[in-house]
UniProtKB/TrEMBL annotation:
GO terms for molecular function: ATP binding; kinase activity. GO terms for biological process: phospholipid biosynthetic process. Residues 59-162 form the DAGKc domain. Its cofactor is Mg(2+). This is Diacylglycerol kinase family enzyme.
Length: 339
């Protein structure tokens, strides 16, 4: 990635959000939560440990909270917003699923959030920090929290959920589902499981017959019916462990980027995937790009849609997407920046 994911400059500094909760996902970082907690205490010697449902005075100005079950990240973030509002920030150490939980809690709220990449794909973090972000960057980002800027970013509202990074449907969601099955069996594979997901879905139906409509940033309304192999909407640039379907997307430009492809053969998919890594597919005649503010999509054949947001898979009869400008405040951490 050679350009910033932001259009605008930061609007706040660290002194304006002195109340910090580090949320560490127990399953993230291949068991490195303990080492990360040690790094936090080295940077913040007076950091406390707090549980969900505790007292804000006992938590203090800086606290570390470990997740203990489903939706725990979301609940911890919501609680910190109740405690401190626009003086608070939650740093979530996890992957794209953890980021999504924080956004569910904080969209439209005053508390900010930041991302410490400790997940499998870390695609939202890749949009922020670069393609090769990893565990060492996670450790360096702890000290960067002392010298950080904040600014609002957009999110997608997808039906009744929020999406920080990317929505997609069609073949890539089938690939994601297979990749998740592989990851559950072989956790050490990390983001390389996505490649195995591709291999395991090569002989399945690649296209979905869709009817979709959207408004672009000029206000023009588009209505299209066609079979698509790729269908992606997002404010982030990456998914699938570093693929770049939306290489020019910005997090704070008040619109979403949109990519859909024609119905592709197996060879066509291979050619498109080869260009996904560096984002050069935007010039392909089978790939269509636009900048949008809302979208409605359903299947022509009446079947339900299989789709995902931030790597979490859902199914519904139709999907309505709306870009929500300045919906949540993000900590703009820079790896390697010291106090």
């Amino acid at each position: 990635m050679d350009h910033s994911p932001f259009l605008l400059s930061g609007t706040q500094d660290a002194s304006q959000r002195p109340y910090i909760r580090f949320i560490l996902s127990r399953g993230a970082g291949k068991g490195n939560a303990h080492a990360l907690a040690q790094a936090i205490r080295s940077c913040y010697p007076h950091a406390t440990h707090s549980e969900l449902g505790g007292d804000r005075r006992q938590a203090g100005r800086v606290t570390i909270s470990l997740t203990r079950g489903p939706d725990h990240v979301q609940k911890l973030a919501a609680e910190w917003n109740e405690f401190w509002g626009d003086k608070g920030v939650c740093y979530v150490a996890g992957g794209d699923g953890s980021v999504n939980e924080v956004v569910q809690a904080l969209a439209g709220k005053d508390c900010a959030f930041g991302v410490i990449p400790m997940g499998t794909g870390n695609d939202f973090a890749r949009s922020l920090y670069g393609e090769d972000v990893g565990y060492r960057d996670a450790l360096s980002l702890i000290s960067a929290t002392k010298n950080v800027e904040f600014s609002p970013i957009d999110v997608l509202q997808v039906n009744d959920l929020y999406c920080a990074n990317v929505f997609s449907l069609g073949y890539d969601t089938e690939v994601l589902r297979e990749a998740m099955r592989v990851q559950r069996r072989f956790r050490a594979l990390g983001s390389s499981a996505y490649g195995l997901g591709v291999a395991r879905t090569l002989w399945r139906e690649k296209s979905v017959p869709l009817a979709f409509s959207y408004h672009d940033i000029a206000g023009e309304h588009h209505q299209i019916e066609q079979a698509c192999t790729v269908f992606v909407v997002g404010n982030g640039r990456m998914y699938g462990g570093g693929y770049q379907p939306l290489p020019d997307a910005l997090l704070d430009d008040a619109h979403a980027d949109f990519l859909y492809s024609d119905s592709l053969s197996l060879l066509g998919i291979g050619r498109l995937l080869a260009k996904y890594r560096d984002g050069s597919h935007t010039e392909s005649p089978v790939a269509h790009m636009d900048e949008i503010v809302d979208l409605h999509v359903e299947r022509i054949d009446g079947e339900s849609l299989l789709w995902n947001i931030d790597g979490l898979i859902y199914e519904s009869d139709a999907v309505d997407i709306k870009n929500i400008p300045s919906a949540v405040t993000l900590a703009r951490l820079v790896p390697g920046v010291q106090e």
